[in-house]
Amino acid sequence: MNYKDLKIDIYADGADIEKMKKQHEEGFVKGFTTNPTLMKKAGVEDYRAFAKEAAESITDVSLSFEVFSDDFPTMEKEAKILAGFGDNVFVKIPVTNTKGEHSTELIRKLSHEGLKLNVTAIFTVEQVKEVLDALDPGVDSIVSVFAGRITNAGIDAEPIIAEAAELSHKHGGAKVLWASSRELFNVIQAERSGADIITLTDDILKALPTIGKDLNEYSLDTVNMFYNDGKALGYKII
């Protein structure tokens, strides 16, 4: 398999605006997602300025920006500001706030008002069902299941993604996103599970061309890497 033959949409996960613009120009990435943790890592100081610049620079693929507040009335205000930056903007709403209170009613209200939502931090099929019940089938939306973190808990994420995909596709307007990827093989897992989208960090994006690589060739490349690194360091045993 060649990575260009993948059916799943690849989204870039990050908050480096210049890197986002370059990835968009290259044309392979089908969308972009961000979150507060990635923004902190990238040194974003002015969130509104960052989101506005991204939306002005990237207008023809999906952009997901997350609300920051922990109370639902403020989340609603933030969501409407973010949605106003462009028709391609999906507003990320966490499935609960930090108190564990479900965001269902806010999701229902915003979706029925026509806002495109990316409901995030979903871990269970029960959460998927609650979110889909609140989403308007006539409005594009994304259901982000954190498969990478599910596997960190020692649980197979593929059955959860597969059920989420089946439910979402019956719903009509929602796409399932395999979130929090950990390694390149997650792309294969996401596609065979029926996910519509997978988010990848820059390191995993750069590794995409290794999909389908001949394993004998890969073995030889690895031996060469070890040999050259040892030689460069001047290591000797005898």
Query: Average pLDDT value?
Result: 96
Determine the number of helices (DSSP H or I, runs of at least 4 residues). Answer: 11
Q: What string, H for helix and E for strand, traces the elements in order?
A: EHEHHEHEHEHEHHEHEHH
CATH superfamily, called what?
A: Aldolase class I
Give your account of this protein's structure.
- The protein is an alpha/beta fold.
- It has one domain: Alpha-Beta Barrel (TIM Barrel), CATH 3.20.20.70.
- It is built from eleven helices and eight strands.
- Helix 5 (104-112) packs parallel to helix 6 (125-134), helix 6 packs parallel to helix 8 (158-171) and helix 8 crosses helix 9 (185-193).
- The model has no long low-confidence stretch (mean pLDDT 96).
List the helices and strands and how they pair.
Layout: E1 9-13, H1 17-26, E2 31-33, H2 36-42, H3 47-57, E3 62-66, H4 72-83, E4 89-94, H5 104-112, E5 117-122, H6 125-134, E6 141-145, H7 147-152, H8 158-171, E7 174-178, H9 185-193, E8 197-200, H10 202-207, H11 215-233
Parallel strand pairs: 1-2, 1-8, 2-3, 3-4, 4-5, 5-6, 6-7, 7-8
Helix pairs in contact: 5-6, 6-8, 8-9
Label this structure with key terms.
single chain, 238 residues, alpha/beta, TIM Barrel, eight-stranded parallel barrel, 11 helices, 16% strand, globular
Structure, briefly:
With 238 residues, the protein is α/β, with parallel strands linked by helices. The chain has a single domain, classed as TIM Barrel (Alpha-Beta Barrel). It has eleven helices and eight strands.
